[in-house]
Amino acid sequence: MVVWTDQERAYIQDIFSKLNYEEVGPKALQRALIVYPWTQRYFAGFGNLYNAEAIMCNPMVAAHGTVVLHGLDKAMKNMDDIKNAYTDLSVLHSEKLHVDPDNFRLLGDCLTVVIAANMGTSFTADVQAAWQKFLAVVVSALRRQYH
């Protein structure tokens, strides 16, 4: 079980309160698909992902990025039991979608870059430490069903 300080909880809640989901989610997923092109294989049904411009203009990529970011709400609202809150998502990604679990970390890294850029100087080292801890727990929860 992860122990959260009151300050860490406050930092995480503050980040989420300032997020524009329809901007940050798409940017994070777009970045992941461009920086780590092998992740594109999970999105074959999204059409043209042949170059950065196509990815940036793809409405399906943008929509899924927003869905992913809203999915993190569940973790924020269940910080004391993220692993159980994410059981169904872990099963979906491992057993049905067969997503390489390392991709969760890669997407988290891209999300961190986008959030840091949006928050600017308010994304302090302490805020980042809390955010990285939060993402590590989320990634661990998503990897839970993998064998």
TrEMBL record:
Keywords: Heme, Iron, Metal-binding, Oxygen transport, Transport
A UniProt-annotated Pfam family: Globin
GO annotation, cellular component aspect: blood microparticle; haptoglobin-hemoglobin complex; hemoglobin complex
Keyword ATP-binding: no
Keyword Iron: yes
Gene3D superfamilies: Globins
Gene Ontology biological process terms from the UniProt entry: hydrogen peroxide catabolic process
Globin domain mapped to chain residues: 3-147
Gene Ontology terms, MF aspect: haptoglobin binding; heme binding; metal ion binding; organic acid binding; oxygen binding; oxygen carrier activity; peroxidase activity
UniProt similarity note: Belongs to the globin family.
Full protein name: Globin domain-containing protein
Lineage summary: Eukaryota, Metazoa, Chordata, Craniata, Vertebrata
